[in-house]
Amino acid sequence: xxxxxxxxxxxxxxxxxxxxxxxxxxxxxxxxxxxxxxxxxxxxxxxxxxxxxxxxxxxxxxxxxxxxxxxxxxxxxxxxxxxxxxxxxxxxxxxxxxxxxxxxxxxxxxxxxxxxxxxxxxxxxxxxxxxxxxxxxxxxxxxxxxxxxxxxxxxxxx
Length: 158
Description:
Blueprint: E1 6-14, E2 18-22, E3 26-30, E4 33-41, H1 45-54, H2 62-66, E5 71-80, H3 85-94, E6 117-120, H4 125-129, H5 133-136, E7 141-148, H6 149-156
Antiparallel strand pairs: 1-4, 1-5, 2-3, 4-6, 5-7
């Protein structure tokens, strides 16, 4: 999966209220709770997800500013060549009952979406893991895999 293209859901928990300066977007306060970030890795989705799961030193993307204090990190990876799938996936997350967009423009500076970061109710977690992008766009998605930071570390050691 190392150089495969794809889109992903990065799921994590912010355990306490956090105020973060997010690059050019400015300073925002994030409530404690379960968050979902929708992203893409067209140059290698596993490297992008590894960056989120294992931590990163430099801050390149909006999500890098927020995840310093994140716990319970998990990713759902969808292999696809279609960049549009990122926005389709974001709209599916947006439609989950109770999902909120806390920051306009977060992760969506290269598209017309309001945001690619969501605060979701804890009760919607399993619904999120069962988003079926394959049935939404049959020919575009090759496979789907859920992985957490410990599994990612194990994959790197093989």
